Amino acid sequence: MDELITKAAELIVRSRNAVALTGAGISTESGIPDFRSPGGLWERIDPAEFSIDRFLQNPGRFWRLHLEMKASGDFNIGAAEPNPAHHALAKMEKLGLIKCIITQNVDNLHQKAGSCEVVEFHGNLLRAACMKCRNREPIEDVEERISNGGQDTPRCPKCGGLLKPDAVFFGEAIPSRALAVSQVQSHKCDVLLVVGTSLQVFPAAQIPLTVKLKAPPATVVEVNREPSALHEQVTDILLLGSAGDILERLLKAVEERFVPMV
After folding, report:
1. Is 122 an active-site residue?
2. How many angstroms from the chain centroid is the CA of residue 11?
3. Which of 16, 62, 64, 201 is the most buried (most CB within 10 A)?
4. Same domain for 145 and 18?
5. CATH number for the domain including 245?
6. pLDDT digits (tens, 9 = 90+) for 154-198
7. Which residues pair with 18 in a beta bridge?
8. 3-class SS of residue 88
9. Does residue 208 contact residue 230 with C-beta atoms inside 8 Å?
10. Nearest-CA neighbor of 75 among 32, 122, 28, 30?
11. Which of 66, 87, 122, 231 is catalytic?
């Protein structure tokens, strides 16, 4: 493992445009359950509850479920704090090595850790967005209005439109800006660091395929507890273990080799 971490660190230090792609596995150490693994969220909650069709049929029902999940602790992402993996990526960005983080997560933990260039591929569950005028507000404000009995089906304070968590539900398209930036970064990327994602959900899983098919292909470094679904096709360096432990060790190896520009 030490040899592989050293090799990955050298690649990152020499890179011109290293990009990170992160999934639920990077946030499990912060207490946020993933979705598809045994014991994950989909074993307790019907995934169809997060479909846009069901939401539109009965938005009040969804918001009640949202509050129940938060109260039970099943998915209280607002209380979560970044773990060493988030901080390691933020530090590598601060060093100028990681140019962009494309995250499938909706928990805001990369930003909390200090990362600036974050593409939220699936949105952010700590915001609510108006489906009419796209005005956004903190989801805590919406939760407070519901809890106080003011609105069973919360509405936008600006235009009266229906409010929805600002995350991509099943049946919705990826935000156009997130998709465009991800495509640009994929084509510029020379090292792709894949962390905590099973690479089973498209179009996010297309990103490592894209970076391997372009000329010249990027090097893919994968950090996962178990190999991803695409590891045989795309992964050049496979680092198996917890994201926090491996990225801390990777950051240390990077810092030992990095000479800042003066």
Report:
1. yes
2. 23
3. 62
4. no
5. 3.40.50.1220
6. 999 999 999 999 999 999 999 999 999 999 999 999 999 999 999
7. 98, 191
8. helix
9. yes
10. 32
11. 122
